[in-house]
Amino acid sequence: MESSGCVPNFGSRFLLIAALCEEGKMGKAEELWKEIRFRGLKLDTVLCSFMIRGYCKSGEMMKAEELYREMRFDACSDATYESLINGYCRVADIDSAMLIYNDMRRNGCRPEGLTLETLITGLYDKGMILEALKTMNHGVCPTEKCYELLIKGLCMERKMEEALKLRAEMVGNGFKPNLDFYDALIEGYLSLGNEEMVTMLRKEAIETQKEEEEN
Fold first, then answer.
1. Which position among 4, 95, 199, 203 has the lowest Cβ density within 10 Å, counted as fewest Cβ atoms?
2. Residue 20 and residue 51: Cα distance in Å, rounded?
3. Cα separations in angstroms, 28 against 4, 13, 54, 78
4. With contact defined as beta carbons under 8 Å apart, do 32 and 13 qualify?
5. How far apart are CA 50 and CA 211, in angstroms?
6. Distance between CA atoms of residues 140 and 183, nearest Å
7. pLDDT digit of tens for each residue in the chain (215 aa)?
């Protein structure tokens, strides 16, 4: 475009960068980004978010973090935080993901259920069950998988009272425990030698299986 004597305006560059970031073509996106900065054009927070999202999708977390730190703390959107959390979880850097999550909460933002699920999955894989459980108490609506991972994790750590409380919360939020949940609970109580609870849970599991077969 510039070779023909036409210089693209900010709006054109914005659209190009956004498209390139979505396609994962960060090299070309960076060229336009540097051009904007060289010309002294005002940086748009939405455009910064696109760049951060692109870096996160391509696994370039250092560049994403640098740009995040350049932005004013109160200028970050929910989408920016979520891109960073998902990006760090994707490269298994759970400590950095938690730092971003804490920044997000301090700024009054809340992650979507799927982002919380990604964070809890990362914490679960690292064996950080209690840390994962704390994220459930911040007013975020969890997904069914969040409950599944946490209940399994609590059962593995033999924290059966907490697991049952979480199951009750899960049912209260409209999710129905499946056989995998019951297997985790039964195994936990078996390890503690609590035959009474094992018997009760097995009966519930059989009833659940019958309901699933009927549906």
1. 4
2. 9
3. 19, 11, 11, 26
4. yes
5. 46
6. 27
7. 444 444 455 567 778 888 988 888 889 988 888 887 777 666 678 888 899 999 999 999 999 999 898 886 556 788 899 999 999 999 999 999 999 999 998 888 888 888 999 999 999 999 999 999 988 876 677 899 999 999 999 999 999 999 999 999 999 999 988 899 999 999 999 999 999 999 999 999 998 888 777 76
The terminus-to-terminus CA distance of the chain in angstroms comes to 60
Burial 60-77 (b: 16+ CB within 10 A, else e): bbebbbebbeebeeeebb
Q: Assess contact for 20 and 28: CB atoms under 8 A.
A: yes
Q: CB of 51 within 8 A of CB of 44?
A: no
- Token readout for 47 is 């455009």
**Residue 195 token pair:** 């035959």
CB 59 within 8 A of CB 87: yes
Give this prediction's pTM.
Answer: 0.81
Query: Token pair for residue 212?
Result: 């699933």
